[in-house]
Design goal:
Elements lengths: L1 H21 L1 E5 L4 H4 E2 L8 E12 L8 E4 L4 E9 L3 E12 L1 E11 L2 E11 L8 E4 L4 E5 L10 E2 L4 E7 L2 E6 L7 E7 L2 E7 L11 E7 L5 E3 L8 E6 L6 E4 L10 E7 L2 E7 L8 E8 L2 E9 L1 E3 L13 E3 L5 E8 L8 E5 L2 E6 L5 E4 L4 E8 L8 E5 L2 E5 L13 E10 L2 E8 L7 E6 L2 E4 L4 E4 L4 E8 L14 E5 L4 E4 L4 E4 L2 E3 L13 E6 L1 E2 L1 E2 L5 E9 L13 E4 L17 E2 L1 E3 L4 E8 L6 E2 L2 E4 L8 E2 L10 E3 L3 E2 L4 E10 L2 E9 L5 E10 L5 E6 L4 E4 L3 E9 L10 E12 L4 E5 L25 E4 L11 E9 L8 E9 L12 E5 L4 E4 L2 E5 L3 E9 L10 E9 L5 E4 L1 H7 L4 E2 L8 E5 L7 E8 L6 E6 L9 E4 ...
Parallel strand pairs: 2-8, 17-24, 45-54
Antiparallel strand pairs: 1-3, 3-6, 4-7, 5-6, 7-8, 9-10, 10-13, 11-14, 12-13, 14-15, 16-18, 18-21, 19-22, 20-21, 20-55, 22-23, 25-26, 26-30, 27-28, 27-31, 29-30, 29-72, 31-32, 33-34, 34-38, 35-36, 35-39, 37-38, 39-40, 41-42, 43-46, 44-82, 46-50, 47-48, 47-52, 49-50, 51-54, 52-53, 56-57, 57-61, ...
Keywords: Membrane, Signal, Transmembrane, Transmembrane helix
Protein name: EGF-like domain-containing protein
Organism: Dictyostelium discoideum (Social amoeba)
Length: 1396
């Protein structure tokens, strides 16, 4: 019996083990309701398609491969998605299932055993009796209420109907026809048809309300577009807020034209629209809506030739060479004119560089040139290699082709919401240091190599990438296109929200924060203020609303964004990503979303258009038009301006070596603020970029004003090439940020056509051109490259910084002034550009230096190869040199910089003046870091510094809470436990000023608050936020001079001398003085002191007289000499009571000559702390530059005119160790004047005050006898890259300045605020002399008048010093004051009459 029992147990155990060994488990991965129950893919179809994902597991890991089958031929096996040694995720696709319920069985076998799984699913009928909810907006919104699962597509019987899916069973519908009556549409379902009637979205409109129609250009001749997409325009005045127009074209009868309001007032607005499809000169009919039908109001015939994009003219055959094994070179010769277009260069489908001239232009002129450019191979490259310029692919054979590594896989994935639409995606791949990804692409943004690497181990690498999902997605068919990882061999792996990346457990790429907005779920829209007056003032407001129907709302894990869609906020057609969005925050107190935002000044009266979005590419943008009147924001304004400034006159004036361009700019409501211009040489491609501001205005106001800028065309050798200079790009800003944009070759800029600043000149292309006559000189020999070298930084912390030195020469005509070449660094996937500085220059040779600090992500797996292009000579020809050329003629053209880790802050979230939370973005972060905050707010006495620890931390993002309330900027820095510090980063809080003095004093009943379920926001300091910032940011409001009365008889010396403004007299060069009654003469360049930065000039009385009479230069023994001197005297640290606690006298200076007109001096001071424990060094550098001709320079966001024969001081001070952050530095400058004359009639005079020329400067005048020394010094400096105000103080009494009749001395202290890194004080011009009142004299007899004084001009950083001499001198600037005044008066009369 025991034997039988033993045998039974033995057989049973072996049977169980055998079954277990052969068992296969199947897990369903498609278990959601929507995956098992579907409608047909489109409404008219009657069959459904299904995809079923499942996991097969071999528990004992036998290694036997799986085989798959099903019990029906309708189920198709799709293959393995992901697998390991014992498991696989696979899918079956079930195609063509008719309506009904189904079951099908999948069979998985491994060896002799198998397992089965039964899938149950249904193909549902879409009945034609659906309940729906139409929204009569534009577009119409149609939502099906009774569908149980998602319907992807619908079919309309009407051919003019277009639609897009914008949410679950929600569709946006539009028609290509203009629907003035209710629209009947039919949806085709397999079970029948559904008829829907949609109301017209157009209001009845009365033709009698039209007033003027203006065409631009108003001409029947053939006219070519000046800029791509800048076609003809029309303006119409209308009393309606929403008129509608249609352009009827025989070739496009249903063409709809979009118009937008540009200026006006309630009851009288001007609208602008573009006329297209007019190449053939057809008769076009402008129609308008009258009641419910369109009627003709005007016939238009325009023959306007469209401007075409042309990359390189017509190149001959394209050559290819591969001399160097690491890069290849393409070359060709163009036989037609280059059109200044921007070209995109692709390598294996990836854009390497996007550039226009000068990249690749090897030699020649714009008429005909040779092109040569080098591109480096990827480290591992398949052959053939595909290279592409724009849309033209060129395949080359790569002789070093290598198959490379396999596809790279994601091993782990995590996504977290940070702020706004910023999400942190953390992925770990199987990449190692020997198998790095070429790039990771998320939401169409590329991240190269180790750019976002946070840790690297033997077999895998982790990346943290912060992605902005504004209008993006990870969906397979969404805007983002998922996550793409490309190896250096070009093999790519793509992961979307349908992709599995893990098999144990089975995990997909997910994006849980994207959801479809439902219109019906947005409730209770309110605004803090309504019926708000925005005349001449930007206003802050708050939007509140609820969103129901989603559980994640309660967790505060989603964000909405508000976009204002009025003309002052958005140019129709402009990419939305380029526009301003305001983001929501969850208010837990009132349990509502709230969005703080600004309404632009002088916005249009009426309902303000806006929309809400959740960032989902495919989700609906919720427009304000979807909601009733009680949810609308009403704007009140009697003076609307939505068009930027326009140019109403263009002139030129040629002087000596320069071309002066003169623009009359008009903006009658908001006023002109500033503008950016690009002018190009038509033959040599020389580029002149400059900005016009109020400092360039020579006459008028910001409403109508005359502005000038000087282009230096020829150098001192007087050689130059005769050519035309053409305006190619202009952006003009008004005082409230509206833009007028012209871009001749911007292929994507057509939507700017209705903002054209040249609207008055569409029929006159010649107005864009300027001529400068140089004679017939031509230099056919292009500049040559003499040397090229690369120096890497020796510092371990600066391994990403290199310095490149190179020299160019042109023996025949020299290199053209003010034209710098461009240095290009290119890898297989990235590029970088750098503009060098000049370190030496003479008539034929120029030495350049370029220091490049690469982004941490740049070229960490590839060599960077350099090329240089854009050398231009004075004879009309340019040259450039490819990496191939540089490698063959010099030591190398490439450098490897590797990958360096260091703690760094790269960006941050926005923060308001109310303080609170702040996200800090960067790299090498960890939870033990602390945030050091230095507040610049003087009101935070005793709380100027703060230390915070993060409340949430990632390797690339840290969240801090507890930022103090402040209206001022503050500086942050991260510090770890070992004392290692990050870079400093400036935070500029947004100040939402809800109440101002006008609200409190005027009791404006129009500015009413909605009933809001929240407390009233606290008042804050007003924000000065109107226009885009100039080239450098400012930290506080800059000081300006007080208005002054104009002096002189006649006033300001008559119209030829100057003109009167509210600030006093503004003189025309060469006239100077507060009354413009004195003139200056031009003298020879003085010899620079080689031991000390001083400017010293001696002049004799006889020389003054002879320079006026052009007689001999001989002197006699009775000559009377005058001596002027300016010098850098000392540096002092001043305490809080403005008392000096340290004084540094400058010792030995190191001298170097920059060029024939510039010299550099450097010295170092040792700064010892008061306790004697530490000593640091500070470097002071001074550059002296002589200006032979009148020149306009820019400093601290100001354009400053340097008069002929002036010397400019530029002084920079490096980091200084202050004893206390409340201290400041004072740079002391000395000025003196003396004479050898020693009789009883000698007098001296000292005068100090504010200038009247509008340059916001101080002036100092010291005078001895007949000679005056005049200094003008600016009241601003560049402090740590920010423009700040400085104080200029007269120190004569405290420093015991000499005051004798024949010798006078003055000291000026330039008070510099606390800084960290450096400060720069730069030049000003000068040109004034004063009367002799209150002079110190030996004898009180009157001396000669101010109009008889002789002079020398010396400009400096702080001073521009003049000895003024009466002499005949040509007048450079002729002002046609009476004519301009008459033109302005006429224009103002026209404007007033038009707007009555």
């Amino acid at each position: 019996m025991k034997i039988f029992l033993f045998l039974f147990l033995f057989l049973l155990l072996n049977s169980v083990l055998l079954i277990k060994a052969q068992s296969i488990k199947i897990y369903d991965l498609s278990s959601s309701f929507d995956e098992q129950n579907k409608y047909p893919n489109s409404s008219e179809l009657s069959t459904c398609n299904f995809i079923f994902n499942f996991l097969s597991v071999d528990d004992l890991k036998t290694g036997i491969p799986f085989n798959y089958s099903s019990n029906t031929p309708l189920a198709v096996f799709k293959g393995s998605k992901i697998n390991n040694s014992s498991s696989e995720i696979n899918s079956f696709e079930f195609l063509g299932a008719d309506y009904g319920y189904y079951e099908f069985t999948i069979i998985v076998t491994a060896g002799s055993k198998s397992s089965t799984f039964v899938y149950k699913f249904s193909c549902l009928v879409v009945g034609s009796n659906q309940e729906f909810n139409p929204y009569n907006t534009f577009p119409w919104i149609l939502k099906f209420e009774s569908l149980n699962v998602s319907l992807n597509k619908i079919k309309f019987i009407e051919l003019d109907i277009k639609y897009s899916k914008i949410g679950r069973n929600t569709f946006a519908i539009s028609s290509s026809l203009v629907q003035t009556n209710p629209k009947s549409i039919t949806i085709d379902f397999a079970s029948g048809q559904l008829h829907i009637k949609l109301e017209s979205i157009f209001l009845n409109y009365n033709i009698n309300r039209h007033i003027n129609i203006a065409l631009y250009p108003n001409s029947n001749s053939i006219i070519e577009e000046k800029g791509i997409g800048y076609g003809p325009l029309f303006k119409i005045n209308s009393s309606s807020l929403f008129p509608y127009y249609n352009i009827h074209n025989p070739n496009s009868p249903n063409f709809q034209n979009t118009i937008s309001p540009i200026y006006g007032y309630p009851g009288q607005y001007t609208f602008i629209g573009q006329i297209r499809n007019s190449d053939n000169g057809e008769n076009l009919t402008l129609k308008t809506l009258n009641g419910t039908s369109f009627i003709d109001i005007s016939t238009i015939k325009l023959n306007f030739k469209e401007k075409k994009q042309d990359s390189f003219g017509t190149p001959s055959s394209i050559g290819y060479s591969q001399i160097n094994p690491t890069f290849f070179t393409i070359s060709f010769r163009s036989i037609s004119k280059f059109k200044h277009s921007t070209n995109d260069y692709y390598l294996n489908g990836l854009k390497v560089i996007s550039s226009s001239f000068p990249f690749g232009f090897a030699n020649g002129s714009n008429e005909s040139f040779n092109y040569e450019a080098s591109f480096s191979f990827p480290p591992l490259t398949l052959s053939p290699l595909q290279f592409q310029i724009n849309s033209e692919p060129i395949k080359f054979i790569n002789t070093i082709g290598n198959s490379g590594s396999n596809f790279q896989k994601i091993l782990s994935y995590e996504i977290n919401h940070l702020f706004e639409f910023k999400y942190l995606i953390k992925i770990t791949t199987d990449a190692s240091l020997n198998n790095l990804p070429g790039y990771i692409k998320i939401n169409e943004v590329y991240y190269f190599g180790l750019e976002k690497c946070t840790s690297n181990e033997i077999n895998n690498t982790t990346f943290e990438i912060i992605v902005d999902f504004l209008f993006g997605s990870l969906d397979e068919d969404g805007g983002g296109g998922g996550i793409e990882i490309s190896g250096t061999n070009g093999k790519k792996s793509l992961y979307t929200t349908s992709s599995f990346y893990s098999i144990s457990p089975p995990l997909k790429i997910n994006y849980p924060f994207n959801f479809d907005i439902d219109i019906q779920n947005i409730r209770n829209i309110k605004f803090l203020f309504n019926n708000i007056n925005v005349k001449n003032k930007k206003r802050a407001n708050v939007m509140y609303f609820n969103y129901t129907g989603s559980n994640i709302i309660t967790n505060n894990q989603i964000t909405f964004a508000l976009h204002l869609s009025d003309r002052t906020s958005y140019i129709p057609g402009e990419p939305l990503k380029d526009n301003k969005f305001y983001y929501s925050k969850w208010n837990s107190t009132i349990k509502m979303f709230q969005i703080e935002f600004f309404i632009n000044a002088n916005s249009m009266s009426g309902i303000l258009p806006w929309f809400l979005t959740n960032g989902n590419q495919n989700s609906l943008q919720i427009s304000n038009s979807f909601f009733p009147l009680e949810n609308q924001l009403i704007i009140l304004n009697t003076s609307y301006d939505g068009y930027g400034p326009i140019i109403t006159s263009i002139q030129q004036r040629n002087i000596s070596h320069s071309l002066i361009v003169i623009f009359e700019i008009e903006d009658l409501i908001n006023g002109f603020s500033h503008g950016d211009f690009i002018i190009r040489g038509e033959v040599d491609n020389s580029i002149y970029k400059f900005q016009l501001t109020e400092f360039n205005r020579v006459f008028g106001t910001n409403k109508i004003g005359i502005y000038e800028h000087t282009l230096l065309i020829r150098s001192n050798n007087l050689k130059c090439f005769n050519q035309t200079y053409v305006i190619s790009d202009v952006i003009l800003y008004d005082s409230h940020g509206n833009r007028a944009v012209f871009q001749e070759w911007n292929k994507d800029g057509g939507y700017y056509s209705t903002t054209n600043p040249f609207i008055n000149y569409l029929s006159n292309p010649n107005v864009f051109k300027f001529s400068y006559d140089c004679g017939d000189y031509i230099d056919l020999t292009p500049p040559e490259l003499l040397s090229f070298s690369i120096e890497k930084s020796s510092s371990q912390q600066n391994q990403k910084t290199i310095t490149i030195l190179f020299e160019a020469r042109d023996l025949d005509s020299g290199l053209k002034p003010n034209q710098l070449p461009t240095l290009y660094g290119i890898t297989p996937m990235q590029s970088i550009q750098s503009i060098p500085t000049i370190v030496f220059m003479n008539d034929t040779n120029v030495k350049y230096k370029s220091t490049i600090e690469f982004p941490i992500s740049f070229a960490n797996i590839s060599t960077i190869y350099f090329s240089i292009y854009g050398f231009i000579n004075n004879g009309g020809h340019f040259s450039g040199f490819s990496s191939d050329y540089i490698s063959r003629h010099f030591i190398t053209s490439g450098v490897d910089i590797g990958f360096t880790r260091y703690l760094a802050i790269e960006s941050s979230s926005q923060i308001t003046s109310e303080g609170g939370e702040l996200w800090v973005i960067g790299r090498e972060f960890h939870s033990t870091l602390s945030l050091k905050i230095n507040y610049l707010d003087e009101n935070l006495i005793g709380f100027s510094q703060q230390h915070l620890t993060p409340i949430k931390s990632y390797s690339t993002a840290l969240l801090f809470d507890g930022i103090k309330k402040t209206n001022q900027n503050f500086i942050i820095k991260l510090i770890d436990l070992n004392g290692i510090e990050s870079n400093e980063y400036l935070i500029i809080p947004i100040i939402f000023n809800y109440y101002d003095d006008d609200d409190n004093n005027n009791n404006d009943n129009n500015n009413t608050s909605s009933e809001s379920p929240t407390t009233t926001p606290s008042p804050t300091t007003p924000i000065n936020e109107t226009t885009p910032t100039p080239s450098l940011p400012t930290t506080t409001p800059l000081v300006t001079n007080q208005p002054q009365q104009c002096k002189g008889t006649p006033l300001c010396g008559s119209p030829k001398n100057g003109y009167c403004t509210s600030n006093g007299c503004v003189c025309f060069s060469p006239y100077t003085g507060l009354d413009c009654l004195s003139k200056t003469i031009v003298l020879d360049q003085p010899k620079f002191n080689t031991t000390y930065p001083t400017s010293e000039i001696q002049v004799s009385f006889e020389q003054q007289q002879q320079s006026s009479s052009s007689s001999s230069n001989s002197l006699n023994e009775n000559s009377v000499f005058f001596k002027t001197l300016i010098a850098v005297s000392s540096l002092r640290e001043m305490d809080i009571n403005n008392k000096p606690i340290k004084t540094f006298k400058f010792g030995k200076w190191s001298y170097s000559k920059i060029d024939s007109s510039s010299s550099r001096y450097t010295t170092t001071i040792n700064v010892k702390s008061l306790d004697g424990n530490t000593t640091t060094q500070t470097q002071i550098a001074t550059v002296l530059q002589w200006f032979e001709n009148e020149t306009t320079i820019q400093f601290a966001n100001q354009n400053i005119s340097m008069n002929p024969s002036t010397t400019k001081f530029t002084i920079s001070i490096s980091s200084y160790q202050f004893e206390n952050p409340l201290h400041n530095l004072q740079l002391v400058m000395e000025a003196s004047i003396s004479t050898t004359q020693d009789d009883d009639k000698v007098c001296s005079l000292r005068e100090y005050g504010e200038t009247s020329s509008g340059d916001n400067s101080n002036y100092l005048k010291i005078k001895v006898d007949d000679v005056s020394l005049y200094g003008r010094f600016i009241r601003r400096a560049i402090v740590d890259t920010f423009v700040k105000s400085v104080d200029n103080i007269l120190l004569d009494s405290s420093l015991n300045a000499l005051s004798n009749p024949n010798e006078l001395q003055s000291f000026i202290g330039i008070t510099i605020p606390y800084f960290n890194d450096n400060v720069i004080i730069d030049p000003v011009d000068d040109n004034s002399v004063s009367d002799e009142e209150d002079a110190i004299c030996k004898n009180k007899e009157p001396s000669i008048s101010s109009t008889q004084l002789a002079g020398i001009i010396i400009g400096c950083v702080l001073f521009a010093i003049i000895i003024v001499v009466i002499s005949t001198y040509f007048i450079i600037k002729k002002r046609k004051e009476l004519k301009v005044k008459s033109e302005i008066n006429n224009k103002m009369k026209d404007f007033v009459s038009e707007n009555k």
